[in-house]
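Consider the tokenized backbone below.
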């Protein structure tokens, strides 16, 4: 299970004794604070701290002119303007710290987002638990024939069972050898920092991850997208649910302009203008590559 009964009791005890504060708080995020949201089979995300809210974004943009200027432009309108014109600094005024439990291969994708502060569970110091990510059958798929980094047809029947059995047996055998190699129970064995190299990439690790809202939105734009790998996408979606409650105005603008919008190249704009003028335009005379043209058609038909 993601959290032990003792850990869950600690979380509920912390939530049962709120402390008074002069800081700005977000009622939506307070409802999520400390609680674990399960992801995959053994993973979770939970918010352990945050700073700021929608008002902090507006305050930074107006440089604290105060509530008296709100008649000039309301908060929602200003936040949408900032998002629409790619202003980043006001969104950097909000921060979030997450405790995440995730498979190592997902962590290696995640860590490519370098604009965050990370502290990971140390397998040099501690022994990792026997917990592996084993995909549900509906997420076992063959290699895509059109996308070199994507999935294609879902495996079924004997092929699905064969792959699942190999995943389970290989992970457990690797962990058995890891345990057998460790310096413990009276044997000299290997140091933990060496024995860990035998562990599979689907074993679970944990970390604390702190990031500002601007860079978090960039993470969500890439990892909550329908084309992202399923195993990291479900983490991004769980985080997005918390962010939506934390900064509802900013998240609505993000959904509209980043997740729901598209960026057009000069060639794409030219094709749209030619189409609006009644011209029939194909890939060959569009000036786009086959990949660009395919992506263009996915949006515009």
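A designed sequence for it:
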């Amino acid at each position: 299970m993601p959290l032990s009964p003792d850990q869950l009791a600690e979380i509920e005890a912390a939530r049962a004794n709120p402390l008074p504060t002069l800081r700005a708080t977000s009622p939506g995020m307070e409802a999520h604070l400390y609680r674990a949201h399960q992801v995959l089979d053994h993973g979770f995300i939970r918010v352990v701290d945050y700073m700021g809210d929608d008002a902090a974004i507006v305050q930074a943009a107006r440089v604290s002119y105060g509530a008296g200027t709100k008649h000039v432009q309301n908060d929602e309108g200003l936040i949408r303007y900032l998002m629409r014109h790619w202003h980043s600094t006001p969104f950097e005024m909000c921060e979030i710290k997450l405790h995440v439990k995730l498979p190592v291969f997902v962590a290696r994708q995640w860590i490519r987002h370098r604009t965050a502060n990370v502290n990971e569970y140390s397998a040099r110091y501690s022994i990792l638990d026997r917990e592996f990510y084993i995909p549900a059958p509906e997420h076992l798929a063959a290699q895509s024939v059109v996308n070199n980094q994507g999935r294609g047809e879902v495996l079924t029947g004997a092929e699905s069972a064969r792959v699942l059995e190999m995943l389970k047996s290989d992970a457990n055998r690797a962990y058995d050898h890891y345990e057998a190699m460790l310096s413990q129970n009276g044997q000299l064995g290997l140091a933990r920092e060496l024995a860990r190299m035998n562990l599979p990439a689907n074993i679970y690790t944990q970390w604390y991850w702190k990031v500002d809202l601007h860079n978090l939105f960039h993470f969500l734009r890439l990892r909550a997208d329908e084309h992202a790998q399923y195993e990291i996408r479900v983490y991004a979606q769980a985080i997005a649910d918390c962010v939506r409650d934390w900064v509802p105005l900013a998240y609505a603008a993000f959904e509209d302009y980043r997740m729901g919008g598209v960026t057009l190249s000069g060639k794409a704009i030219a094709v749209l203008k030619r189409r609006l003028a009644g011209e029939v335009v194909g890939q060959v005379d569009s000036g786009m590559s086959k990949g660009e043209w395919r992506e263009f058609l996915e949006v515009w038909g």
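The two ends are 46 Å apart (CA to CA).
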